[in-house]
Each structure stands twice: as structure tokens, then as C-alpha cells.
Amino acid sequence: MKLQIFNGVPTQLSKLLLSLMAFTVVPISACSSRSPCDPDFIPPASPSPPNECRVDGCSLAPDFDFGYCCNQHDARYWLGGTGQERKQADLALRQCLAEADHKMLAVLYYYGVRMGGTPYLPTPWRWGFGWNYPRYQSKHDTPSH
């Protein structure tokens, strides 16, 4: 396997460093530029959250050429569900990024959403953000880790 170099730095490492820098300069208000979900990204659910499904790409991180991966992930986070369903959504994001030839970013973004997507904080990107915060009326609704 040949390693591609950009300005003396391996290409994948350059992308990783750019992503890390973006985490420090992209404001939280970036989520205000949300657009409606693609209906194909919305999993069938009963009941459906009261708030409209909206996506913003990779929220606080650069989308590069894989914004569709993040939009699919946003649709799953909008719906919410169990802790196991959250983990499956995060693993699907990691796989999508890896298949888009961003294996290092896949790992970085995976751990980013595992830590930052907790349903216990009132963030606009939390697990189950389609529901009003907080939303845990039954054992089924309560996420596990």
C-alpha cells in the first residue's frame, strides 16, 4: 500500500489534523443551518417524535465528501431509541465513513458521537433530539450505555 503525501504529511493524517482543528473553531450555532431529513433516511418508527427531523451534516466537524453518512446518522439520532440502537447507529456511521475511504476519521467521529451524543444533555444533536428534553417515561425509553 502506497502512502500518499501532501506537503510532507500523510494525506489521512492531514485530514485528521484538519478535523481536530475544526472541532476547536466551529461554533455550536452551526446546528442552526439544519435542513429537512431525506425521507429515505427516516427509519420507520411508532410513535414518531413531535419535532421535525432536520439534519446538518456532521454537526461540529467537517463533512468532507461524506455528509450523507452524517445525515443518515442525524436521522437515527432524531428518532432516538434504546442504548443498543444508539450504538448501532454510531457503528453504522463509522462503517459509512470507512467505506468512503476515511478509516482514520471513521474512528475519530465514532468516538466523538459516542461521547458527545449522550441523551442526558440538552444539546441539539443528542440521541433522541426529535423528542422534547428530557424524555424517559419508561424503561424502554431509557437508554443504556
From TrEMBL:
InterPro entries the UniProt entry points to: PLipase_A2_dom_sf
Entry's Gene Ontology BP terms: arachidonate secretion; phospholipid metabolic process
Annotated keywords: Signal
Alphabetical list of SUPFAM superfamilies matching this protein: Phospholipase A2, PLA2 (SSF48619)
GO molecular function, one term: phospholipase A2 activity
Residues spanning the signal sequence: 1-30
Taxonomy, superkingdom: Bacteria
Stretches of the chain forming a coiled coil according to its record: none
Protein name: Phospholipase A2
